[in-house]
Every structure is written in C-alpha cells, then in structure tokens.
Amino acid sequence: MNFPFYIARRYLFSKKSTHAINLISAVSVVGVATATMALVVTLSVFNGFHDLVASFFTSFDPQIKVMPVKGKTAPADDPVLVAIKNLPEVDVAMESVEDQALAIYRDRQSMVVIKGVEDSFDQLTHFGEILYPDAGKEVDLHAGNLEYGVPGIRLAQMLGIGAYWPGYLHIYAPEREGQLDMTDPESAFVADSVLSVGEVFNVSQSKYDRNYIVTSIAFARNLFGQQGMVSSLELRLKPGSNFDAVKKKMREIAGEKYKVLDRYEQQADTYKIMKIEKLIAYVFLTFILMVACFNIIGSLSMLIIDKKDDVITLRNLGASNKQISSIFMFEGRMIAAAGAVLGIILGLLLCWIQQTFGVVSLGRSSGAFVVDAYPVSVHFWDIILVFVTVIAVGWIAVWYPVRHLSKRLLGD
Fold it and tell me: Which residue in 70, 119, 121, 195 is a FRET match for 48, CA 20 to 30 A apart?
C-alpha cells in the first residue's frame, strides 16, 4: 500500500485535536461539491436548450442540403446534383428555390423569404407536424392554375392574415433582366399571388416563423425567373445509412462547386453562439471552483500545524520529507475528489428532478414559452469533463501551498 496515501486517508477520517479543522475540511468538501454541482447543472441546461433547438430545426430543415458555392442558384440538371440525387442511400430528394420578396395583404406589407418546394417536402422534413391549427394535415401547394402559400405564424400575425385569409396575398419580386423605368416603377417587379390553405407553420424560431412563406417550386421559379434552376437540393437518407460516410461521399462528388451541409451546419451561427455561451459559463464556474478550493488550503494549513508531533514521529520512523509532503498532498486531493463525486451525484439528482417534475419554470404564463420548464439534457462526456476539471483544479490548488507550508512550518 502507498504509505503517504494510507496516512492521508487516516487523517481525513480521524478526529483532530482542534474541532475547527474537521469543520473546515467539511466546508472544503461542501464548497467543491457545490461548485461541481453548479457545473453539472449549468452544462446540462445548455445541452437541453441545444437539443430543444435541434428538435425545432428537424421539422423544417432537411437532413442534408446541397447548395452552390457561388451564386444563388444552379442548373437542376447539373450532373453533379444528379449523381448526388441518385446515390443508393438517398431516400427522398427535393429541389428547392428560395429568395427574398415583398408580401402585401391589404394595407400591410413585409419582406419575406419565399421557399418553393416540391410535393415531397412533407416526406423530407415532416412539415405537417408543425402546422397550425391542424398538425399532421397534408396540404397541397398548387391545384391547377391556383397557387397556395403557408406562412410562418409570426409573419401571419404581422400581415394580419391569421391561419386563413380571404382573397389573395400578393407577392412582388424584382425583375432579373432589363433596366428600371423610373416612369413606371411597377414594371421593375414581377407580381404574383397565393391563396390560403387555412394553415400556418410554427417552428418556434423567429428566423422561420417571421420571414418564410412555403409555396410550390413552380410558383417560386415563375416569380424569380429561375426556370430549370434550384437554390438547393434537399435530401433525406434511408434509415440505417451511415450518415457521416454518405456525407463524405457527397462532398467528394460535389468537389468545390457545391456545399454539402447537415442540419447543424445549416444553422452554424446559432449553434456557434450556443457553444460560446456554454464555454463562457464553463470558464466562469471553473473560476468559482478555484475560489472554493481555497478552503482546502486553509484546511491543510491547520492540519499541518496540528500534526507537527506526528511529523516528528514519522521522521523518526524513517519517513522522508518527500513522503511527509505527499501525505498532505493526498489529503488535499482526497478532499477535492470527495467534493467532485458528491457534487456530480447532487448535480445528476437535480437534473433528474428537473427533467421529471420541471421544478424551475420559465414563466408563470402557460404557453408563453415553447417549453414550460428549463430543459435539461445530461451528456456523458460533460460529466467526465466536470470530474477531470474538478480533480485538476483541486490538485493544482494544493500543490504550491503544501510545498510552501511544508518548508515554512515543518522545516522541509
């Protein structure tokens, strides 16, 4: 058995001549445990929001999107796109045309993004699940010469149209060719209109709910003058496909001409911000953990003074100065380890309570938020990161003080 560790373990659990030393040791463990618990809970809440946002995007964004690197559109019959579309792992492939336009309904107007899609859009993204008021309803975006549109719920509120609107919602897009005639400004725009299907979609993300109108791809191509062109090729893979391998194969086919983006890469800005926020929270809580470790220094200082007689005895028995210093090193590290284990257990317990009962709510008004309580998601590697961080900070925190105190108080 390791001699310094054996003695340190006995010191940790034995009674000291001064009761305050036991109290300070307990406070040290509680301080480290509290900081550890805060790390576990905070990182799990960030994970919860991350997973919640990802679930929203799943209902609108495709599993994989292929977009041109240069320009807004590319030919739909480009051999590269055809080759990607015909890969055996592809289950659903859909062409899409997307661009900005002006929407006007009666006396209200707003800049919007028109997203023209094929009939396979609902199979691609489960679009029907985010429809309101009839979730799961199948909608037709065109019938004969009639074109229909499904706006985001917040855009519908801004235009004052609700889920159903009588008459036409007029859409205007700039002419792609020719020069502007100042005497007739309206000639510089292509005008068209869509009817209501009695539904709006609700992704619970402002980017979509406030700006997007989903229409047929034929309507979008006519509006923007993009016949035979696509803004993106949107794909869903067959169940059981190796996602990373297929994405790599698509990127090899696309070369430098097209971008192949998964859902997270399509929303890179949003997820980057969330990762930065999580990192900042982790850094600040680590600083708090360092402050909590100062209690360990106080506990060790008093323990070294209390055990002066024991140190003399150990020296007479042949213990080296290095071994004696290691005893107090192990003492501090065991306090840090005990706090880490206790803090992780408490943190996991709090996360389970929040997941099960939703104790901490987001607001008093029911339905005011997407979820009623703070979402929590515990990730295994975050727990490992927290444990390693606490152990590392605790061990570093006790190294210099023990060396310094050993030299000053014990004559090492």
Answer: 121
Alpha helices in 59-205 (DSSP H): 79-85, 121-125, 153-159
Question: Does the bond joining 133 to the residue before it have cis omega, within 30 degrees of 0?
Answer: yes
- What is the rounded distance in angstroms from the CA atom of residue 9 to the CA atom of residue 26? 15
Q: What is the chain's mean pLDDT, rounded?
A: 85
DSSP H helical segments within 127-205, as ranges?
Answer: 153-159
Residue with tokens 């199979």: 123
| C-alpha to C-alpha distances, 106 to 44, 110, 171, nearest whole angstrom | 47, 12, 12
Minimum mean pLDDT range among 153-157, 192-196, 201-205: 201-205
Tell which wins on pLDDT, 342 or 328.
342
Query: What size, in residues, is the chain?
Result: 412
* Amino acid type, 1: M
Tokens of 81: 């796109």
Backbone angles phi, psi at 317, to 5 degrees: -85, 0
| Cα separation, 208 vs 57, whole angstroms | 10
Three-state secondary structure along 258-327? EEEEEHHHHCHHHHHHHHHHHHHHHHHHHHHHHHHHHHHHHHHHHHHHHCHHHHHHHHHCCCCHHHHHHH
* C-alpha to C-alpha distance for 39 and 32, rounded to whole angstroms: 11
β-sheet bridge partners, residue 365? none
